Model the fold of this input.
Amino acid sequence: MSLKIKKVLVSQPKPSSDKSPYFDIAEKYGVAIDFRPFIKVEPVSSKEFRQQRISILDYSAVIFTARTAIDHFFRLCEELRITVPETMKYFCMTESIAVYLQKYIVYRKRKIFFGQTGKLEDLAAVIFKHSKEKYLLPVSDVHKEDLMRMLDEKKINYTKAVMYRTVSNDFGADEKFDYDMILFFSPSGITSLLKNFPDFDQQEIKIGCFGPTTAKAVRDAGLRLDIEAPNPNVPSMTAALDLYLKEYTKKK
Done:
């Protein structure tokens, strides 16, 4: 029997590597997978940043939870003609984010720390060991408060700095929107869907998402959630998609 799910939209940029599991899944089940972010990141201008009355050189350490934050931190430093001292310490969510710092600094000459697991608690534990530092936390205008709550509980001295913003990546009138399944990765993606298509009628369209906050956003929008990751059986969105299509094919 032919598979009813023919076109899947992944609301993320297209993977840079051909080895992405998405391509294997497309081939395995004969589905077309398109990549198209529902949201995009825009820079906060140096003028807007100045209005926050934050002086970067007042801080002895920076916390990075994403590569995007690194890009915008160093962009603003350049625009504001700030030379970041070699003594600045960097605390990163994961090792891969820490390694990304090489784009801007001489890695081996800097004090760089990162969490081992990619979990917030792990990053927070590393920060707690350096509780005397004065931290700067670059964020988007839309951000989660989880890390801040942990820092507040331990009375860590930090300042949140909005350095970029997350906005809806609008669909053009000529863009086809004829998908059998859409996969989301953030609550902003759901907001963007409803902004682009205020009369969106889910009907038979399957919706999948990654992360509990995105799942909540799907349900709060009154939409049906068909695939949810991560869970004990499926640690990733691609694993969840693979399992769903496998089961779906059996039913056919």
